[in-house]
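for the recovery benchmark. tokens below, seq after
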């Protein structure tokens, strides 16, 4: 029996430490800080409000989560629905159509949102297509070899967490309903001047590299992060980029 096998049998703590160390060896890591130049908009459907139909709210939220978590099981979706209902809507007086997730420490974005931004920016840059004689398609690398460590990415400002939205954008939108086109009102929570910091890791045996990561981030500054990006929201400047592993 090898030393590693003996440690595995004898100590779960030693086993966890061994695999954590191996994980670090397999990945390169960067710490990235973004400073939002425009408003960042909360994109979580605003359910859980007083007097609302709770069954309808759950159905709306379940459909939204299934759309964003394509590989999730029914159990994963149900758990995410309950977690979102618990975390996102602390203030029952808020009547926005979209909001931010929040906990006792303040508002946050989710790591999956940042990863989705990386995949979208990489696709727009053509990294999902092979370049004859130069490189293969990086689509699989973007989907499976690039990860964001944090599940909760805190919205920070002036050295501290942002505890509540700065306000709500209200604007008319045109929608198509069962009775034809109509005008509705969209109300979205926003935060101004926020900053976020997160860790990106890339498996170091794939073609996706630091140079690609820099290109993706450079382009993503104009692509933006968060909801309502088509309205110019969510644009940012990369103010911190450091390799840490």
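predicted aa per position
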């Amino acid at each position: 029996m090898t030393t590693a096998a003996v440690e595995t049998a004898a100590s779960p703590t030693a086993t966890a430490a061994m695999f954590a160390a191996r994980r670090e060896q397999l990945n390169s890591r960067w710490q990235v800080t973004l400073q939002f130049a425009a408003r960042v908009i909360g994109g979580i459907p605003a359910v859980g409000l007083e007097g609302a139909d709770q069954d309808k709210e759950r159905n709306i939220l379940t459909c939204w989560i299934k759309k964003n978590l394509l590989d999730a099981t029914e159990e994963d979706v149900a758990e995410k629905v309950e977690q979102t209902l618990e975390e996102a809507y602390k203030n029952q007086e808020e009547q926005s159509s979209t909001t931010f997730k929040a906990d006792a420490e303040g508002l946050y974005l989710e790591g999956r949102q940042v990863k989705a931004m990386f995949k979208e920016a990489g696709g727009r840059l053509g990294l999902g297509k092979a370049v004859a004689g130069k490189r293969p398609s990086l689509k699989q690398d973007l989907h499976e070899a690039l990860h964001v460590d944090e599940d909760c990415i805190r919205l920070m400002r002036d050295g501290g967490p942002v505890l509540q939205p700065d306000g709500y954008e209200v604007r008319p939108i045109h929608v198509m309903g069962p009775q034809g086109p109509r005008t509705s009102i969209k109300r979205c929570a926003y935060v101004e001047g926020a900053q976020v910091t997160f860790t990106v890791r890339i498996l170091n045996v794939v073609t996706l590299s630091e140079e690609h990561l820099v290109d993706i981030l450079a382009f993503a500054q104009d692509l933006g992060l968060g909801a309502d990006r088509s309205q110019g929201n969510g644009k940012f400047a990369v103010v911190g980029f450091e390799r840490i592993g």
